[in-house]
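Schema walk-through. Below, the input block comes first and the output block second. Nothing else is stored per chain. Lengths vary across the set, and this one has 521 residues.
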Amino acid sequence: MDRNIRQGRGHKVAIYTDRRNYTYSEIQEMANKTGNAFRELGLGIDDRIMILMLDEPQFFAMFFGAMKIGAIPIPINTMLTPSDYEYLLNDSRAKALVISEDLVPLINDIKGELLYLRDMIVVADDEPQIPFRQKVKNASATLETEFTTKDDVGFWLYSSGSTGPPKGAVHCMESPLVASENYGMGVLGLTEDDICFSAARLFFAYGIGNSMFFPMAVGGAVVLNSARPTPESVFDHLERFRPTVFFGVPTLYGQMLEYKERQDREKGTKSDPNVHELSSVRMCVSAGEALPEDILRRWKERFGIDILDGIGSTEMLHIYISNRPDDIKPGSSGKPVPGYELKIVDDEGQEVPKGEIGTLLAKGRSAAQNYWRKVEKTRSTMKGEWLNTGDTYYVDEDGYYHCAGRSDDMLKVGGIWVSPVEVESCLIEHPAVLECAVVGHPDEKNLIKPKAFVVLKDGFTGSEKLVDELKKWALDRLAKFKYPRWVEIVSEVPKSATGKIQRYKLRQAGEKADTASTAKK
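--- output ---
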């Protein structure tokens, strides 16, 4: 942030919003005043400050203001329950909570005791409420930065909970710089002329890189949208602010395609890939879950733009495997991002041959130091320099990495491993399927077989005929042991805040239903 001022970008727009735009000088002043106001509250080095905020400019001021005084900002998911926030506040031992006014009822509804929270700072209409606003207003615009090194704790990010309760991943000061250099510049080629727009929110790793670390690392700009990222609102912002790089997740890309394809049908017109709402965008990026080939193909046909699929994590901070603008292999996560090393191992930790599925390990300087108050999980996940990602992958003959799902999502059918992602990618190519999730389910002999939960596109209705059609669709395209023996039509599939399908919740629901059925008998 300060470097952009020194390099003469003080007058340049850093943030675009519905209300107004903010220059680098304004963001710096806001952050400095906020840091001084934090100090006046008695906050300082190593104190935790939890940030429960929508995507708005004050997020930048609170985050950087905290880091500058050596305090530890902890952005958290804005879509949780009061009991979740009780857990996170007590687990982190945060002394202060910065919260958007619209989210205050979630904290007021906490039933238990908050053991460590001392101050709650409410932000409304881009400004803190009294009395913190007065502290900021009267604070100096010059902030004496606390002495820290690259190895000091910079911030925490709680995991999205795709495999269970959230864990606090502790990141050092250097992590954002490394991720920005490796992926933001090394793969995306971001420059000060770029305007980034991320449907993924600031409170988790993918979003904070897209919207804050990357644009500020190169002197670029970001579009912030505090509203829920529906297809309608996303397209509205794309047309209004004309960003050059758009970041989304597979689920949203599918919803956006469905939204525009429905409009095309209603108008009775055929889309022109040279004239569309993304005409300013030079690049689209996807992460959070494997991008189905069908969505990539239809997106390119509709908008004439490729989507760069990749994989990242809270622990590694951002994307560490990615396709490239000039090197895309549909259905794959791409190749290692410069600055990261990868290997795929079996249960004994030995590297597997090309083409075989194993657990993905990654190594890079943006990796988290540890999990807060989770010693055993730290030891099992962070193995020296290597991070056990918990994802299963294989490498093809050309060196492209292919996701096979979470290690605990893999199914063993007839003694052979089956990737739920492969079955899902097949089903989503059916004209009626919007999205789906595949898990293991016991048959009458208590043998595990694939079961698919399917969300239909608008205009399609669930029926026995359609269920049979979907089974046959998969059977005609996959090895026989891989096709889903059951297909259940549902209104939605459970997802984490990052858009990752939470298959474990579907498994748990199935186990409860089976137990209830057995008890009834």
